[in-house]
Model the fold of this input.
Amino acid sequence: MKDILTAPFMVEMVRTATNMYDHGWDERNGGNISLLLDEREVREYLDADRAIRTIPTGFAAPRLDGQYFLVTGTGKYFKNVQYAPAVNLGLVRLTNGGEIAELLWGFEDGGSFTSEFPAHMMSHVSRLAVDPENRVVMHCHPANLLAMTYVHTLDEREFTRTLWQMCTECIVVFPDGVNVLPWMLCGTNAIGEATAEKMKTARLVVWSQHGIYGAGRDLDEAFGLIETAEKAAEIYMKIAHLPRLNTITDEQLHLLERRFGVKGREGYLD
Ligand code: 2HA
Ligand code: ZN
Done:
């Protein structure tokens, strides 16, 4: 059996959590990541038939029955993931239609998966229906996107258009746009269901006055989506209070669509 700490999925997870912390997106215990794994790669590193303990999830997700996830722990600090992965991360397999998580590795201090596990798992279901290659759901608290939800309309078309106008690359990176939830109580099945619904039409979902969710085929894609949206929000927060003399026009956004072979969300460009 190979050492799981050397597994490419583990190395990448630790690097990503560290990088997110270094970006200031995950203060204290803020943020969470879940990474869908292949059974074949998991079995290279552990005996997947021996559960350390079982943890009820509190929701059903039949689509995910038998699936393996590497996930950050509740109350755990991203800052510490690199120093103690086996305490701050856990590897679980969902069984009983998603109602039970079998812990196969990690959470060594008796811990459990993130409080946002419902939002993560329900979002995986939504994204897998759109893109069978989706593997990652990521949540964090980037300051400028949060700030923007205090001063910008939460209308999804307007929110997306503003971000597209802030950096030339935005429409290329997230042509599907950014969906937005109003403030809701976090850690509940209700916000999980609402997030998953929004994940059907975009890989980025803003939680107003809280943070953002990103989804992607790998950790780099999810990270890069959030990174790009956060950069755009930063520029917006630098200029929102100033007279705007120039912008990226819809005509120019159409030029970008053609040049890069992407299509902005239906009805979002004039
Ligand atoms: O504590 O970010 O949304 C982790 C969170 C909750
Ligand atoms: Zn959060």
User: Anything to note?
Assistant: The mean pLDDT is 98. Residues 219-239 form the longest helix (21 residues). Residues 68 and 129 are 17 Å apart (CA to CA). The domain at 1-114 is CATH 3.40.225.10 (L-fuculose-1-phosphate Aldolase).
